[in-house]
Specification:
44% of the residues lie in helices and 17% in strands. The chain is globular.
Length: 260
Amino acid sequence: MLFYGVVPVLVPLFATYKLITDKVFRQSFFPTSKNLYTLVSSATVEPISKEWYYQDVTLLKKLWKLSSAKAYIDNVEYQTREGYCGSATQRCILRSFGLSGEKLPPQKQGETKPWSWCEHVTQMAKVQNVELSTTIISGDVGYDEFLLELRKGLANENVRIACNFLRSALMGFERIRYIPFHMLMHLMSGHFSPILGLLERGEDDDREEGASDNPFVAIFDTNHKYGGCYLVPARRLYQAVRAVDLSANTHRAIILVEKK
């Protein structure tokens, strides 16, 4: 009732209220919305879920041999409700570090921004006497730096990576786009999930030009609807992370979580 009854009414009202009362939001809303609509529309034509690599068995077998992915075996969990993706991602990452899932707080709503997510995950770890540091890599960095940080983080056994991204930039419009609520949700709703690994591609991969500079990134989607782990080209993921969060007028981010 809340998600399909109350929220569809409140979201358009909230956007209208912000347009009236917030000058900065009003100035940025329409050009940013236009760019996001173009991005999501493009993904609707070519969603990653229809591509050969999305959940390719051979590639996933290679993934689970990586040390970055092995840490998550038996340590992942799906969000229990809509809006709990940030909390579920925190629990996945902390469990992959060896923290007891029974001693972690249950999933909850409210982890929507990278900076608040970082503050909460470090607090959760301290309860079990584990010190963490977090580094936010905003989506406004260049692609080369984005890819470098991914590679460095996944190569370090003491680092895990959380991803805050616009999933509709990968999957496209999954509901009727011309209903105001559906359109706003696809343009505004960010998502959290852990990144499990990266599969490099050689120059001999003739399925895509520039494949060697566009490795596959493995995401464990905390929403069970997407079937767990899937692969996305790094450049596509970069666009989904670079997508602006309309409510905060900032880019989304990847977060490097390091165990001291």
